[in-house]
Amino acid sequence: MEERKRSDERKISKAVIRRLPRYYRFLSELYERETERISSKELSRLMGLTASQIRQDLNNFGEFGLQGYGYNVAYLKDEIGKVLGINKVHRMILIGAGNLGQAIVKYGGFTNKGFIFTAVFDYNPNRTGEIFGSHPIRHLDTLAQYLEENPVDVVVLTVPKRAVADIVKIASRRRNIGIWNFASMDIKPEPGMTVENVHLSDSLMRLSYNLKTDREMQRD
Amino acid sequence: MEERKRSDERKISKAVIRRLPRYYRFLSELYERETERISSKELSRLMGLTASQIRQDLNNFGEFGLQGYGYNVAYLKDEIGKVLGINKVHRMILIGAGNLGQAIVKYGGFTNKGFIFTAVFDYNPNRTGEIFGSHPIRHLDTLAQYLEENPVDVVVLTVPKRAVADIVKIASRRRNIGIWNFASMDIKPEPGMTVENVHLSDSLMRLSYNLKTDREMQRD
Predict the structure, then answer these.
(1) For residue B148, how far is the Cα from the chain centroid?
(2) How much is the CA Rg of chain A, to the nearest whole Å?
């Protein structure tokens, strides 16, 4: 049974996975506003999805809605949190003590989901020991040793492209590690490595495309 | 004909639009490495897509490949750039002079695609006049007047959630404006407004999900 459930979970489409954090976000806001329950119709209006889309998405993970009652907000939020794996603490280290790194380390929205920074690294020896968002900066040369001695779930990369390959090589010695990559290149995961590449430029280009087509529509 | 082409363009699926910037990124890298042409097979290996997926995606916008030759890198890059609308200059203003704002204003990867910052705003009067990535910070109270007097294509929002509604209201007086939103809430576009919401938390939650399922697979 356990086996079957797991391999079922893996078949969930990427599109559903992409939407899941958005469900979690909207449910968290409802929860903060002390909303106890919500119908799939209301939730669909709020999120700009169809009610049947929502039912279909959520049915991938279990039976959450009750006919005539709708969804219990707190329960659904927690269940989606479990599916996303954010019901446990993730220990993160930051590599690259620049502006983007600072914005990420200081942002409270990650901490309150259990993503906790435990160390910060930078290649520049002049910055070793400098306090960076409550962490003393460690030199990148000590990364391999740190990874051997400390539990780390996620490595956050806010370094230039050219620095990526060496760091990935070091991180790959550890199994079950996640890389949250902000360097402007796709990292291909090594065995035992899970990668999420963030490309802010891609998002800006999509905005540019939509702006262009919206303008064309208004001229029609 | 022109009419038909335009309405055809609008039917292109969101999934294709989501992939387009990635094509542009890979082609730009090939171009920088002075690669003249590439087969759909090579491109598919590089990008981790099937060759037929690539042909299908690109056929939405025209005939780019030649049998037995493949794609001309410079030409395809420029054509995708045109589809994305990044063949012209976009004037951007930043609102919210914090760490994330600084990372964005200073990042060269936007400028070289024609996304140019022309002004920076912040609500804190003590910071007015301070130089922020080569721009003197203006007070948020002067935003409405600035938008009346200057051409602006994109407003980049790196402000807390609570500041968003007022800014959107001011920006909505201007037609054909894009909002690149980093505040942790979805902005619903007003008429004449194009919005791209960036949610870094969503990306981190996807990483958490994939890390969890990868770990389960390794235990099997």
Answers:
(1) 24
(2) 21
Residue with tokens 């907000």: A73
Chain B nearest CA to A219, separation (Å): 11
Q: What b/e readout covers A19-49, taking b as 16+ CB neighbours within 10 angstroms?
A: bbbbbbbbbbbbeeeeeebbebeebbeebeb
**What is the Cα–Cα distance from A131 to A128, expressed in whole angstroms?**
9
Chain A interface, best mutation among B99, B111, B158, B185, by max A CB count within 10 A:
B99
Round to the nearest angstrom and report the end-to-end CA distance of chain A: 57
Query: Distance from A130 to chain B by nearest Cα, in Å?
Result: 17
Which residue of chain B comes nearest to A201, CA vs CA? B110
Query: What is the ipTM for the molecules in this complex?
Result: 0.90
Chain B: closest CA distance from residue A93 (Å): 13
Instruction: Extract the runs of DSSP E, i.e. beta strands, from chain B.
Output: 37-38, 65-66, 70-72, 90-95, 115-122, 131-132, 135-139, 154-157, 177-181, 193-197
**What pTM does this model have?**
0.88
A to B CB pairs, distance under 8 Å: 186
Q: Buried (b) or exposed (e) across A193-220, using 16+ Cβ within 10 A?
A: bbbbbbbbbbbbbbbbbbbbbbbeeeee
One digit per residue, the tens of pLDDT, for chain A of length 220 reads 333 444 444 467 888 888 999 999 999 999 999 999 999 889 999 998 998 899 889 888 877 777 778 899 999 999 999 999 998 999 999 999 999 999 999 988 898 889 999 999 999 999 999 999 899 999 999 999 999 999 999 999 999 999 999 999 999 998 899 999 999 889 999 998 999 999 999 999 999 999 999 888 877 6
Please name which of A198, A80, A176, A91 lies closest in space to residue B211, comparing C-alpha atoms: A176
